[in-house]
Amino acid sequence: MAVTERLDGPQDPPVDDTGGPTSGPADTPRTRRRLGPSPTIAIVFLLPAALLLGIWVVYPIGYSIVRSMYDSTNQVFVGLENYGTIFSDAGTLKTIRNNLIWVIVAPIVVTTIGLIFAVLTERIKWATAFKLIVFMPMAVSLMAAGVIFRLVYDEDPDKGVANAIMTVVHDTFSSSQGYPEARAREGDQSPVAAQEDGSVVTKQPVESGQTVLIPIVGVKPEVMPADAQPAVAATGGDGLSGTVWFDFTPGGGGVNGQPDPTEKGLPGMTVEAVSDGEVAATATTAADGSFRFDGLPSGSYEVRLPQENFTAAYNGLTWLGPTLITPAIIGAFVWVWAGFAMVLIAAGLAAIPRDALEAARIDGATEWQVFRRITVPLLSPVLLVVFVTMIINTLKVFDLVFIIAPPSVQPEANVIALEMWRVAFGGGNNQGLGSALAVFLLILVLPFMIMNIRRFKRGES
Amino acid sequence: MTTATATAPAQSHAGAPRRNLAGRIVDRLGSGVVQVVMILLGLFWLVPTLGLLVVSLRTTEVNNAEGWWTIFTKPAEITIANYADLLAGGFGASFWNTVAITVPTTILVIGIAAMAAYAFAWMEFPGRDLLFLVVVGLLIVPIQIALIPVAALYGQVGIFGSIPGVVLFHVAFGLPFAIFLLRNFFIGIPASLLEAARMDGAPEWRIFVSVVFPLGKPAIASLGIFQFLWVWNDMLIALVYANPANQPMTKYLQSQMRQFGTNMDILSSGAFLSLIIPLVLFFAFQRYFVQGMMAGSVK
């Protein structure tokens, strides 16, 4: 049994349900009018709901509109000044900009992912399990989702799984162990010299069979790998070999330019053998700092430590910093809502007549053409419903931003709904401006309200 | 919608196409890729919650020292100390506050909305269609619009900060969707059933209780679970209207967010406890939904 049947009912945005059960009112009014109860009884049935909606929803709309034209003390009438503040204050303008990013990015991403998932689940046997997993975040509070993603986005790759994955992927493609601020030992005695591009290169050409010593100084203790072994001067042999080590004896002593017994190798350095400006071979230093280019054609080479060795190790991204905070929170939003989109679109997909798809395939259409020309157009009503629902949700987004953005970064991630709360209740203490923000939010969802009503009317007639 | 989706699985199996050998090989390869991609995506959706669970089962010292994924090599580090600490603090009270807010809200929404939905579906009164359009319009009103006015109102009446205040706010904002959903379901009840009852002279409240309500069970069950989840998971309304003595879990946990790093033990275990009941309900009601949909599609 597909999850679809169970999940789509109540989640289904209103507009789609209206076609609903078959025996609609169309064939009943005549008999109903004759037998139906008096309007008085109808009023009794409606009264509790009408009172609650009137006092808690309808009356507050009017109150907020009036309140938005008074100042924070509610004593002075200021007209539209609060609205002027919304569009002139740098902080609120930033919230509007952020909401705009949300509205443009999040609905498209959620709908697209929902569509992809819905199509892909048709091709696996464990579709039910997949749908359950992806839909699960819908049952979880946004507060809990926020805590979950605070952990995911932790900057330390030893804590946050996002940066852990990114560093693993990064290190797979570039294995450098970073030694920031480390540099080659300077001076005439030193066999190597720093280049302008930050790399370290041997001064004399080296033949294969020879050994190279590359003394490095200025390695910071905190970047010294725990597994580094005492450096050993390479002994030659086949190919080109050598040692990269930290040429510094703690407490003094030792010979500069020679690996002394207490000096440690620098593991994980990328070493290149360069011939005529071309990299002929690449090696990585071992725990004792030794490296060897095997099977190198004879000839003379420069041995080079590329500049990447001297930059800090890659630690992923600062997800919760000012630059990435909004995209990061949108990521959490997508995680929460993708299941909703997927389940709705999957229900739509299941309702597409298979004959139409098969006919197109038999006529030689490729899968992509079938998808692009038949599936998507037939799905467009469902896609629109998902898309619009997501726009409304992004306009109202609050919890995720409030929880995921650390207090210091919150101004950068701020959105209208959060700013409204902050201004009116979270310390701002300006209910005039708060009301104006609430009305602004209502105006933003107004077009969708009208759209819902129109669509409902069309469905009823 | 109901009918269409209930028959869907049959359709998806019916049209399995016949293909030539090359096509089948391509399909097989493609399906292998799809399998792998789907497993990765599934992990992508599962891993964040798994991370929360593991973090909640380790001490702060361990969590600060290494990633939660090292649990697979060091299962001995699991401890329920965080949960013990959490329950010894203020979390237990906030859990019961969440229950005290969620259960009455769900019951009230169902009862009040069912009455109104019955009136909208099966009674004639002037302005019915217009009023229902208002309900449709109210479906997406942002709750922010009511925060300030209702706070002022509660201040005057003296229920600001109390659980009834929180409950009533939730009920009011739950009603538009509830009325909408139930009305659309009730309207599908065969007219003959209601007419027979009315012909027998049964009073309306009786028809409502013994005919409409039982027939509406599938929709009411769906509404119930979603209403329950919405209120259980709410933070904003609690943030504004619940004082610290009456705060639900979401607000309690939010108050611990400021020191995220040092409070990770409380936050992770609290967040996990807060989502365990929604998850259990979500899985348990899957079955109920199937039955409801089946019953609804027999018409």
Protein topology:
The complex is a heterodimer of chains A (461) and B (299).
Chain A: H1 3-11, H2 14-17, H3 29-35, H4 39-67, H5 81-88, H6 90-121, H7 127-135, H8 142-152, H9 161-173, E1 183-184, E2 192-194, E3 200-202, E4 206-207, E5 211-217, E6 240-246, E7 270-275, E8 278-284, E9 290-293, E10 300-305, H10 325-351, H11 354-362, H12 367-395, H13 399-404, H14 410-413, H15 416-424, H16 431-460
Parallel strand pairs in A: 5-6
Antiparallel strand pairs in A: 1-5, 2-3, 3-10, 4-10, 6-9, 7-8, 7-10
Chain B: H1 2-6, H2 8-14, H3 21-56, H4 60-65, H5 81-88, H6 91-122, H7 128-138, H8 144-157, H9 163-186, H10 191-199, H11 204-215, H12 217-233, H13 236-241, H14 249-255, H15 264-297
Helix pairs in contact in B: 3-15, 5-15, 6-9, 6-12, 6-14, 7-9, 9-12, 10-11, 12-15
In short:
Chain A is α+β, with helices and mostly antiparallel strands and 461 residues long.
Summed up, the helix count of chain A is: 16
Strand percentage of chain B, roughly? Answer: under 5%
Assign the CATH class of the largest domain in chain A: Mainly Alpha
Averaged pLDDT of chain B: 85
Name the CATH superfamily classification of the largest domain in chain A: MetI-like
Radius of gyration of chain B: 25 Å
User: How do the SSEs of chain A run, as a string of H and E?
Assistant: HHHHHHHHHEEEEEEEEEEHHHHHHH
**What's the count of strands of chain A?**
10
CATH evolutionary superfamily of the largest domain in chain B: MetI-like
Structural class of chain B: mainly alpha
Pfam family, one (chain A): CarboxypepD_reg
Organism (chain A): Nonomuraea ferruginea
Domain ABC transmembrane type-1 (chain A): 96-452
Main location (chain A): membrane
